[in-house]
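ESCALATION

Customer reports they have been waiting on this structure for their group meeting. Please prioritize. Original submission:
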Amino acid sequence: MKMNTEVLGANAGAGQATIIEVSHVSKSFVSPDGSPLPVLDDVSLDLREGEIVALLGRSGSGKSTLLRCIAGLIAPTSGEVSYRGQPLNGANPGVAMVFQSFALLPWLTVRQNVEIGLEALGVEPSERRQRAERAIDTIGLDGFESAYPKELSGGMRQRVGFARALVVEPDALLMDEPFSALDVLTAQNLRAELLRLWREKDFPTKAMLIVTHNIEEAVVLADRIFVLGANPGRIRTEIGCTFAQPRHRNDESFQALVDQIYTLMTGPDNRAPAHIVAAKSAADATATDTPLPAASVGGMSGLLEILLARGGEEDLPKLAHELSFEVDDLLPLVDAAQLLGLADARDADLHITDEGRIFVAANILESKKIFAALARERAPLIRAICNSLATTDDGTLGEGFFLDLLRRGFSEDEARTQLNIAIDWGRYGELFDFDVNTGQISLERHDQPEPGDVRG
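Update from on-call: job pushed to the front of the queue and completed.
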């Protein structure tokens, strides 16, 4: 279903006071060689009283970094974050955070964990206890005040995280993937409870900002959704969710919005920096301009087989729901298939290409050859490794050589991840091998070029 990707309508916070304003924020970290690694690029948004806003993006979109800038835990490289019109110069006094990892102190009881923020604010012990117990009751944990985190399920531990954040009565509640560590049913229940509490008049916060990579979660919760692009993170569009709560995934308006967001996240990024757009459309794209998707060849092949079995095309939201996949599960497989020209995503639908049909129908040896040729032609890092190895006398180079190159555009962890993906792809295609004991990457002997023949 083709949808307009511009801002949709009004939102719950329209006309209300602005709590947080992010103005042209960019953030870079320093790579091991001293060069800047941009994580956020010129991000502007606001959070108003009476609304829930979602920051939706894939891995690498800088969502958590942006949230930490908003919380005042890290400073932007350029731009400004303001709370109630005042620029931040440290921790944001008007927010509290809920983390993905629960972040509870295991040696403290539920009540003691909830009291931590109040203690930091200098609240007297008797008032701390009263307020903590009230927050515990509100969040549905009454009876567990004296329990320790190890005695609680994941959902109950996250309830403690919510109580600890809400007990300080923040202007804005910031949530960093708060449901992603929970099973599907527990997450669904906790989201519903949060919305029920939000609708009550005495809910102790005026706005909520949630970071997520789950499209349906964003549509269920948010009044506005900011869709972020990646590498570096930037706002692709703002979408207003104007239909009433509660929202159900089978409703036509819900599905239309999910389709719209899938279309955005699988389509070209018209707001990407010019040098990235140019590089991605050119034959000389580099490994840093076009990183390898975090997808295994087996996973991508399985997706193509499912697609072919369904007639060669399928609606991505439907496919994700049936496979119980979230964005960070499904889209890397889609990206890998698109990078190699085996599938094409258009208007939230995934289509297998003619090359994809040939790849799926081939026997394992032929499919390996097809994959090797496509990876060498269309995956810049694979091409760079093959070309570099081909220029050496023995077709061998240490992994450090490639890690040094990747660190110019990625963090240490990201560089290692990229090389690991490349090694897996190269091994599958029998393009090159890796000796874990020596750290040496070497051309497969049957692929060794004749002297002077540097292919790629």
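Sent to customer with the following note: The chain has a mean pLDDT of 85.
Escalation resolved.
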